[in-house]
Amino acid sequence: SDYLDHLEEDLDSIDIAIRTGNTSVNAILSSKVSIAQKNNISVNCKATVPPNLSISDVHLCTVIGNLLDNAIESCQKLPVDKRFIRIYIGLFKEQLYISVTNSTSQTRRKKLTELITGKKGEHGFGLRRIDKIVDQYDGYLNRKNEPGVFATEVMLPV
User: Fold this and answer.
1) Per-residue b or e along 14-38, where b marks 16 or more CB atoms closer than 10 Å to that residue's CB
2) Which residues contact 34 (CB under 8 A, 6 or more apart)?
3) At what angle do helices 57-75 and 23-38 cross, to 10 degrees?
4) Secondary structure, 3-state, 118-130
5) What is the Cα–Cα distance from 43 to 150, expressed in whole angstroms?
6) 3-state secondary structure (DSSP) of residue 147
C-alpha cells in the first residue's frame, strides 16, 4: 500500500502510455518504464491483463514493481549500450504469465541462493516479497541467471 501511495505521487509527471486492461498495472508499468527510459535503458514491453484475476491489484503491482526495480538497478551498473529490459505479461495456459528479462553485469552464473542483497537498511526485501506473494496464490516462480542476463518468470492462477 505504501509502495502504491509513493507511486501515485510520481504519476502526475508520467504519461500513462501503457494500456494493459488493468488501471493499476498501467500505472506501475508506465511509471517504471519511464524511469528506465530516463536512465537510458532500452525497454520492450508487451502486456495484457485479463479483467478478472484472483490476485489483488496491490499484490500484482508489488510483484511487477519489485521485478522492474531490480531490473532497472541491475541495468544501471552497465554501460548505456548494454542496458535492456524485456517485459511480457499475458495469459498462458489459463494463468497470468509475467516475464521480466534484463541485462546484468554478472559475468558468471550465480546460484539462486546467492541472490542476496548487499543493500543496507530497508532495501533487499523485493525477492522475498515476490516469493511470498507467489506462494500465497499457489503460483509458479522461476529465476534464471546466465552470464549477462537475468530473467524471472511468474505464473499466477487467473
Assistant:
1) eeeebebebebbbbbbbbbbbbbee
2) 14, 15
3) 10
4) CCCCCCCCHHHHH
5) 15
6) coil
Q: Give the residue among 76, 75, 105, 78 at the shortest CA–CA distance from 87.
A: 75
Strand, helix or coil at 46?
Answer: strand
- Coil, helix or strand at residue 67: helix
Q: Give the Cα separation of 126 and 129 in Å (integer).
A: 5
- Determine phi and psi for 85, rounding to 5 degrees: -135, 135
Give pLDDT tens digits for 63-104.
999 999 999 999 999 999 999 999 999 999 899 999 999 999
This prediction has a pTM of 0.84
CA–CA gap between residue 68 and residue 85 (Å, rounded) = 8
Spell out a b/e string for 88-126, using b for 16 or more CB atoms within 10 Å of the CB, else e.
bbeeeeeebebbbbbbbebeeeeeeeeeeeeeeeeeeeb
List % helix, strand, coil for the chain (3-state, nearest 5): 40, 25, 35
pLDDT, tens only, 131-145: 999 999 999 999 999
Are the beta carbons of 60 and 24 closer than 8 angstroms? Answer: yes
Q: Are 71 and 134 in contact (CB under 8 A)?
A: no
